[in-house]
């Protein structure tokens, strides 16, 4: 018997579904094999219930390759709760604005946390100073989560619908050049609100969505600065079939991108536009022999996200973004993630992002084709 992934992953109570269906829809071995292939198939709460309920033992999880430290963390709750309010009044001049866009649960906040950790690590750059700013508390709490003095961390939950944060920094490289950079985490629900507004689904918009849209228009349309701007679009690998409120990720990205262009945001994006694909640690087992990871990732996105990529190519050509060329996807990960909530941190991919921000010519040469 084969494990019914769809029914299990859609179940409101996964542990009860597993207990009720072992020996009917699937066998214990099916579940263990699936966990061996994807250590984040089930979340930490469900895994804790399974171990406590003797669905499988701790040793069985170790035997299929799960790090014992992750198993020991089962039952641990996040200590750091990110701010539930975030409103950006304006972005000052004299900085490079770096925007992170994506749908809810795409890994956007975790990517930013890893990038901040890389900037603080004194490896890719000499130092990073965080200035007094609207996103200062957000940065402090993210830094406590992605604490490089600890090898493992518990990942944060999602940010709220209308919570946007701007973190102002000065990054100094090893040649003592200083780069003022503002990292801006835009609420994931923004792309949802953009789609609903564009398709006339006004009944879906809450007051929080309206506030998020108004704030977007305030800082990127009505009071747009003359600063250089980078836009990172976050795509979650292997989640192309996951629906958020009944709609696939590709459509949110497509309509969000169109909304940005219609409001003039992309016309000033010549400084940098990138596609950051998170959770690419799950990709390696799927890359065919003899094919590079970069080629596989490009083919994967063309196949799974055609609407977003085709629209992006058209805008790049029509508006002269990225020199009229389409940006290549950047594989990204924050480390080894297990049970959807625990992470053994690895900041190497994040160092590439820091390098691209402070060395634009290198970024354009490597990632624009």
Map the helices and strands.
Blueprint: H1 5-10, H2 14-21, H3 28-37, H4 44-52, H5 58-63, H6 68-73, E1 96-101, H7 108-120, E2 127-130, H8 136-145, E3 152-154, E4 165-172, E5 178-185, H9 189-198, H10 207-222, E6 229-236, E7 243-244, E8 247-248, H11 249-262, E9 272-278, H12 293-304, H13 306-319, E10 329-331, E11 335-338, E12 342-345, H14 348-358, H15 360-367
Molecular structure report:
The protein has 369 residues and is of the alpha/beta class. The chain is built from 15 helices and twelve strands. The strands form three sheets. A seven-stranded mixed sheet has the order 2-4-5-1-6-9-10. Strands 3-12-11 form a three-stranded antiparallel sheet. Mean pLDDT is 87; it is low at 365-369.
Q: What is the H/E string?
A: HHHHHHEHEHEEEHHEEEHEHHEEEHH
Helix content: 40-55%
Query: How many whole angstroms does the radius of gyration measure?
Result: 21 Å
Task: Name the average pLDDT.
Answer: 87
Strand tally: 12
Neighbour order of strands in the largest sheet: 2-4-5-1-6-9-10
Low-confidence segments, given as residue ranges, are 365-369
Helical region count? 15
Terminus-to-terminus distance = 46 Å
The global form is: globular
By secondary-structure content and strand pairing, the structural class works out as alpha/beta
Short description:
The protein is of the alpha/beta class and 369 residues long. The chain contains 15 helices and 12 strands. A hairpin with a 3-residue loop joins strand 11 and strand 12 (342-345).
Question: Which labels suit this protein?
Answer:
369 residues, seven-stranded mixed β-sheet, 12 strands, 16% strand, disordered C terminus
